[in-house]
């Protein structure tokens, strides 16, 4: 069972911020949220993860709501190479990942 | 560092035939995962190994699928006999360790490029 819900697709103008939402209303207190992306014909690639605090790295920022029932991945300045399917994942016991169907992000020139 | 290697990249077989996929994880990674990704869906975990032992194979269709990781390094996934609905990309991933629930460490899973299987 997928533990996350994401919009099927989104568009974003090149150079603008891309905000990708995710609902994980059944997440347990000690389960992490991970974000991966998958470019066509490649394996998923790690972006960022968090538990309850907001996180930032060189690729993106992750904003987690206080109740932890939803989160938003932010790509601050989207480029054409960011066009991909983005997966919001809940990591459960044993380091197992539950993938949803993901959001297909298209960055438009 | 070298990534997760998989072979072959593509395979076309007829239904009822057998097929095997190979995966070599990142050196030093104790945990290995096999996923099935059907077109338009997210990856679904089939089996998880910790070294050469199975941690979870609850989603593996054991009547036709088998997997092994005999020496705790590389792994093979076999389908025998294949069905039309087995057409998918089979992804292998590895991580440094399984990690305890709630552990603060980043148990990032590193994915290989996948094997695209077409069953005719």
Characterize the structure shown.
The complex is a heterodimer of chains A (109) and B (120). Chain A has 109 residues and is mainly β. Chain A is built from no helices and ten strands. Chain A has strands at 9-13, 18-23, 32-38, 45-50, 55-56, 61-64, 70-75, 84-92, 96-99, 103-108. In chain A, strands 1, 3, 4, 8, 9 and 10 form a six-stranded mixed β-sheet that branches. The mean pLDDT of chain A is 93. By secondary structure, chain B is mainly β. Chain B has no helices and eleven strands. Chain B has strands at 5-7, 10-13, 19-24, 31-37, 44-50, 53-56, 65-68, 75-79, 88-95, 110-111, 115-119. In chain B, the strands form two sheets. In chain B, strands 2, 4, 5, 6, 9, 10 and 11 form a seven-stranded mixed β-sheet that branches. The interface between A and B is medium-sized, with 24 and 29 residues.
């Amino acid at each position: 069972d997928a533990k996350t819900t994401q919009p099927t697709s989104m568009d974003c103008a090149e150079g603008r911020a891309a905000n990708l939402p995710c609902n994980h209303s059944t997440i347990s207190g000690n389960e992490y949220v991970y974000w991966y992306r998958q470019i066509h014909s490649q394996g998923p690639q790690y972006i960022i993860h968090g538990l309850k605090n907001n996180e930032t790295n060189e690729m993106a920022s992750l904003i987690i709501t206080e109740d932890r029932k939803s989160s938003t991945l932010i790509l601050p300045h989207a480029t054409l190479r960011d066009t991909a399917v983005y997966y919001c994942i809940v990591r459960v016991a044993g380091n197992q990942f539950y993938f949803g169907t993901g959001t297909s992000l298209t960055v438009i020139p | 560092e070298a990534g997760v290697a998989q072979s072959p990249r593509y395979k076309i077989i007829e239904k009822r035939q057998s097929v095997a996929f190979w995966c070599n994880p990142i050196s030093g990674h104790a945990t290995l995962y096999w996923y099935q990704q059907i077109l338009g869906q997210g990856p679904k975990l089939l089996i998880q190994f910790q070294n050469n032992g199975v941690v979870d194979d609850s989603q593996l269709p054991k009547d036709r699928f088998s997997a092994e990781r005999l020496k705790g390094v590389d792994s093979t996934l076999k389908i025998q006999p294949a069905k039309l609905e087995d057409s998918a990309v089979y992804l292998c991933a590895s991580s440094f360790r399984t990690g305890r629930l709630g552990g603060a460490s980043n148990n990032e899973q590193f994915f290989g490029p996948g094997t695209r299987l077409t069953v005719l």
